[in-house]
TrEMBL record:
Stretches assigned to the RCK C-terminal domain: 26-110
Site feature: Important for substrate specificity: 13, 82, 168
Designated name of the protein: dTTP/UTP pyrophosphatase
Cofactor: a divalent metal cation
Enzyme Commission number, as recorded: 3.6.1.9
Upper lineage: Bacteria, Pseudomonadati, Pseudomonadota, Betaproteobacteria, Burkholderiales
Length: 205
């Protein structure tokens, strides 16, 4: 039984969710020399599900290497990646406010998918074992007027969020329907993550 895991994510929501579920975790964040952002590059023609899974595996590989480089005690490592897809179009984190406004205008009055891939790496003496899962949710936005979009972007909330919004924040006021996993939309799906933790014998609760 593993008493704790490493969480290799800068997302405060993921840490908060794991703590809420009673999982003991320690952060395993990239060094200054690592270029974490460069992992999140979409390949030409890549479908959203393939993209989010591939990026999560890249994050996990980099995190397991980091664990060994730092000679830390071995324990399972959890990584995740969240992306928003409008049809086949991938809407990642906004580059700036203008980008966030364009993304929100595209999402306004429509239904899109939020995909979160989770991967758990269990480091072993000889080989590492990897478990992974994908959560797909549908989110419907009501109409946002240009004024609504401007005011929302001015709050700063869209920055650092896939699709330029946060369901757990002010964007909730425009979300008329969801189908899937609320925690998955926030960045870490409870059901799928719990399944991976159970399979890897990590203590929860
Ligand atoms: C759609 C949506 C996304 N998000 C967030 C979750 C993720 O943190 C972020 C997507 O970016 P990610 O690249 O998945 O994660 P991150 O950059 O925050 O952290 P790391 O790569 O170190 O793990 O968007 C919300 O908080 N609420 C939402 O409603």
């Amino acid at each position: 039984m593993h008493e704790h895991i490493y969480l290799a994510s800068q997302s405060p929501r993921r840490l908060q969710l794991l703590e809420q579920w009673g999982v003991r975790c320690e952060l395993l964040l990239p060094d200054d020399e690592e270029d974490a952002e460069s992992l999140e590059v979409v390949l030409p023609g890549e479908a959203p599900a393939a993209y989010v899974r591939r990026v999560t595996q890249l994050k996990l590989k980099a995190s397991l290497e980091r664990l060994r480089r730092r000679r830390l005690p071995l324990a399972p490592v959890l990584c995740a990646d969240t992306t928003v897809a409008l049809g086949r179009r991938i809407l990642g984190k906004p580059a700036d406010e203008a980008d966030a406004m364009r993304t929100l205008a595209a999402l306004s009055g429509r239904r899109h998918r939020v995909l979160t891939a989770v991967a758990l790496g269990v480091p072993g003496v000889r080989t590492d074992r990897t478990l992974d899962a994908l959560s797909v949710s549908w989110v419907t936005f009501s109409d946002m007027s240009p004024g609504d979009i401007c005011r929302y972007v001015a709050t700063g909330e869209p920055m650092g969020k896939a699709g330029s919004y946060a369901i757990q924040g002010r964007a909730a006021a425009w979300i008329s329907h969801i189908s899937g996993s609320y925690s998955g939309i926030m960045g870490l799906p409870a059901f799928e993550t719990a399944g991976l933790l159970r399979a890897a014998h990590v203590r929860t609760g």
